[in-house]
Design a protein that fits this description.
Layout: E1 2-6, H1 15-29, E2 34-38, H2 44-48, H3 59-64, H4 69-72, E3 74-75, E4 81-84, H5 93-100, H6 105-112, E5 119-123, H7 130-138, E6 141-146, H8 150-166, E7 173-180, H9 185-193, E8 199-201, H10 204-212, H11 216-219, H12 224-242
Parallel strand pairs: 1-5, 1-6, 2-4, 2-5, 6-7, 7-8
Antiparallel strand pairs: 3-4
Amino acid sequence: MAVIAIYSMKGGVGKSCTAVNLAWNSAVRSSRRTLVWDIDPQGASSFILNGDRREKDRARAMIAGDVKPSKLIKPTEIENIDLLAADVSLRGIDRFFFELNKKKHIGKILRQLNKDYDRIILDCPPGLTETSEQILRNADLVIVPVIPSPLSERALTEVQMFLDSRGQKHAPLLPVYNMVDRRRKIHNEMLAKNPDWPVIPMSSDVERMTHIKTPVGAFAPRSPAAIAYARIWRGIEKKLSKL
């Protein structure tokens, strides 16, 4: 089992769309038993994957140990993808972790899921918090969507500096340029600085997936965005095979 976290300090960089599309490639292209664990209280991944909205405010109870993960995990309409949905109870999760004073709590939950899944995709909340610290310690790989702008790249640098300053082992960070518009001069300048970073183009298909609640690869498999996600997933699998 491998844990892939989709993380950024900034919101609005396309974390959830990236998480869902990579999960689709994991399940469909690689035939992996895949779990999407949505830890972001906004619940965007849960919304796209048609999470069961009837069960409210149980995500925090699961993390607290009052409810087993197996009770909340639901199959999606996509074969090989299950969902551990988010809800608004996660809004206070950082304070909960601080009060609990358990630095390896998320790791403990992930180990419970070890035998059931080949890949777990974590849709993480933005910010550098206790939750994100636990995620970064327990992931095998961290995908960081970066919009080609100085502020977005600065946020990535701050995360790397923070992790290095802690002197603790952490998962490797894999930056991915997202929402790239090659008509914009600043985007081209940023891409030129890091030509080896994967690129996901700005796409109406990605916007459409949030409306029809379907990953891009399922309804527009030959679109530039779908091809980009597939290429990134192949790179992830290759990197995981070497860890």
